[in-house]
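Figure 3 (text version): structure tokens given as input.
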């Protein structure tokens, strides 16, 4: 039985929201230098992954949702590690953004049922 409340459609919608927020963050939070670059890189990466993921909001779905989850395993910690390694966290607004974004992304990751599509496919059709 699934105990994770976020399914494929909701996860896809949240991810598209994340892409939008990451793309707008440099302007909204006045981020400069590596913080700005990382926001755009994260937005582009997340956007591509989400676009090609097999969920109802995927535009060209060929990445299984389970693999999407496996790709997010290193991606979520990178939301804090890369800004730290590049010095982007020296900006107060960047610290606020990246730590807050990391917390929300981690919650999304932990609460998503990445195997939902597999269970749906394994159910026999009703007569």
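Below: residues designed for each position.
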């Amino acid at each position: 039985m699934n105990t994770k409340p976020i399914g494929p459609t909701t996860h896809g919608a949240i991810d598209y929201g994340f892409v939008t927020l990451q793309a707008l963050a440099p302007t909204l939070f006045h981020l400069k230098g590596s913080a700005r670059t990382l926001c755009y890189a994260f937005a582009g990466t997340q956007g591509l992954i989400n676009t090609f993921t097999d969920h109802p909001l995927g535009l060209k779905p060929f990445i299984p949702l389970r693999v999407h989850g496996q790709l997010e395993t290193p991606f979520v910690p990178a939301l804090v590690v890369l800004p730290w390694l590049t010095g982007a966290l020296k900006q107060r607004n960047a610290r606020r953004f990246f730590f807050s974004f990391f917390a929300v992304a981690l919650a999304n990751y932990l609460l998503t049922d990445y195997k939902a599509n597999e269970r749906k496919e394994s159910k026999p059709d009703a007569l």
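The chain is about 70% helix and 0% strand.
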